[in-house]
# Entry
Amino acid sequence: MSERVRRQVMSTACIIGFFVLWEVLCLMFHVSDIVLPRPSQVLATLWTRFPAIWPHALQTLYTTMVGFGFGIAIGILLGMLIGSSKLAYDVAYPMLVGFSSIPKVAVVPIFVLWFGAGTVPAILTAMIMCIFPIVVNVATGLAATEPELQDVMKTLRATKLEILWNVGLPRTMPYFFASLKVAATLAFVGTVISETVASNRGIGNLMMIASSSFDVPLVFAGLFILAALGVGLYIVFSLIEARVTGWAVRSDSFASGG
Amino acid sequence: MNAPLAHPKPRAADNVIELEKVRVTFGTAKNAVTALAETSLRIDKGEFVALVGPSGCGKSTILKLVAGTLDATQGNVFVAGREIGAGAARIGMAFQNPTLLPWLNIRDNVMLPLKIVPPFKESFSAKRKTEYRDRVEASLTQVGLGGFGDKFPWQLSGGMQQRASLCRALIHDPTLLLLDEPFGALDQFTREELWEIMQNLWIEKRPTVLLVTHDLKEAAYLASRICVMQARPGRIVDDSAVPFARPRTIEVSFEPDFVTLTQRLRQRIVAARAVQEIVS
# Structure
């Protein structure tokens, strides 16, 4: 237990140390806040302009979560399809790889053309950003299901659906959650790209306007907010992951609690 | 699966398992390996048949055919008078490895067949916390795993996992029990203990059992009939009844008749292996 506490103290100290170093270096070399604001300046900006930043942060969080939600749903369905059908694999995989190789910033104007500027393109961009890792991991998880475990179900005359539900999907969960942690951060990237290009709300838009008026501390305040949201989402999924897939790492807390 | 309903050939209900000129080959034309040469085998209801033979002789192939996890290249496999896949027999199977699902605790693992197999599945959600739970607990207690229901497979030793997997094979009162060397990885004493449990269960409920094993003593102790197989290509070369009265005790295995039988089977397998080496 003391080992764990020491590790946590050490890691927290290192993270705080990073920001302290940043602050000190900026002071030492007299870096202008138009080039690189100090963390204290960023925090001050966050504090004083919170009422102005707050609705943008909410907007970005909302769009990202909706896009992420759609991304998960479509990702799971596609992953299940690709993981369980050879034909679907052959057809969908090249298309997916091709599609995800397209820079998303190039797609945003098309969405704007179709749906107008604002929330919808941002949701869609967030969605397409996070579909790919989810599909790949769900498909991999299904393909990695041990044939022996499937045989157990087959001898019981289980239907395909029962095998998928009782063996395939639980077996896929560790892969799925690993992809969620990647996808959650990608979803924020997608939202912000779209907000930067075509929206009058959201952190991306805020940063766009702030940088055009050389309000660099505000730009960095936006970055801090995005980082905080990303970390928050990551933590949420890590906690769910520990509860659902503790068996995969043979964790004792899973065995006693679940 | 072969289309099960297209040719509903009636079979005598007594033959729980019937392999009719079955042949299994793996691979394509050039690299084809014959796992099982043309083989016919009949097993009557309530029989306890052991398949013995050297590795690679097709024992497990026969088991997979009957379990329905492998399709015959040629010939027909009937289970309970129906072509395999029609799903007439209630099958319980224990494998060489425990094959427990790692995300379920031991209780839920053992309960799995009750969730899948009719008629148990119909009332699964109603009884899982009451009747089925007691049933699983009783079964676990019988193999010495009472109180381990909440543990996860990785928290148990290999032998304990194997016992749990036997419980899973038996929990839904199968009429046909397929055992693929389930005692192989256990220590001598645990093995003999489980032999006894298995024999009592067979005497009590009389399922049809097909046991694949390397262990001649195990075959002679448990089975009412022993089929010796030979490899390359796999086929049955000897089929003899085991006459000893039941319930058999482990002491039976030291009696002259028992030793003579296992000796004879041993020589049969040694001869089969010799042929195999000349061929290959």
The mean pLDDT of chain A is 89. The two ends of chain A are 21 Å apart (CA to CA). Residues 37-257 of chain A form a domain with the MetI-like fold fold (CATH 1.10.3720.10). Chain A has two domains: 1-31, 37-257.
